Amino acid sequence: MAKKGEIKLLGTPASHFVNRVQIGLNLKCIDYEFISENLGCKSDLLLKSNPVHQRVPVLLHANEPPLIESLLIIEYIDEIFPDVHPILPRAPSVRAHNRTWAYFIDTQSPDKKGEEEAKIQIREAAKLLERVFVECSDGKAYFGGDNIGYLDIALGCFLGWITFSETLNNYKVFDETISPRLVEWAKKMRSHEAVKNALPSHDALLKHYSMIQYIKPPRTA
C-alpha cells in the first residue's frame, strides 16, 4: 500500500475525469494528496508534469514519471495495487471488451450538437449501454458483477454532471423506459462510499458551469 504523501493527484473537483481517478483511488483505499489546479492559471507543477496537453488529471507516484489520461491511471493503480479491490477483468478478451466500451463512453459529445440532436444521441447511447450492462453484469449490481469494476468507473465518473444536467435541462439521461437497469445501477453507484465521496456537489458544478458559459460579445455595429 502507498505510504502517506507518496501519491499526489493534480485535478479540479468539477472534472469528471479527475473524479474517475478519485473513484479508483477510493476503491483501492489508497491514501493520496489532492492538489487543486486552477486551469485558468496553471501551476508550474502541472505544466512540468503534463507539458503537451497541460490538463488534468495527473497522477504523481513517488519517483515514477507523471501519469496522465484517467483510464490509463486507473489501469496503472490496478496493476501496482492488485490486492485491494481488483478493477480490470482478469480475462484478456473481457479486458479488451471493457476498454472498447470505455472508449465509446469517452467519445460521446452531445454538447457539441443541437438540443434535439443531443437528446437523440443520448437516448441511443443509453440503449446501447443498457445492453452492455445486461451482458456484462450477468444479473448483478454492477458492470463488474458483484463489485464496481472498470466500466463502472468509466461511466460512473459522469454521474455528478449527469445529475446536474438532468436538473438543469429537465431531461433524463437514464430513463426507466429506455434503460431501467442503468437507472438502478446509477442509484447504487451514487450511494457507494467510494463514488459519492468523489463526485462534486451541485453547487460546485453550478459554479464551474457558470464560469465556462459562453458570453456573447457586445455588438459593435
Automatic annotation (TrEMBL):
Coiled coil start-end: none
Keyword Transferase: yes
Annotated Pfam families: GST_C (PF00043), GST_N_3 (PF13417)
Record-linked CDD domains: GST_C_Tau
Residues covered by the GST C-terminal domain: 66-218
SUPFAM superfamilies linked to this entry: GST C-terminal domain-like, Thioredoxin-like
Full protein name: glutathione transferase
Record organism: Cynara cardunculus var. scolymus
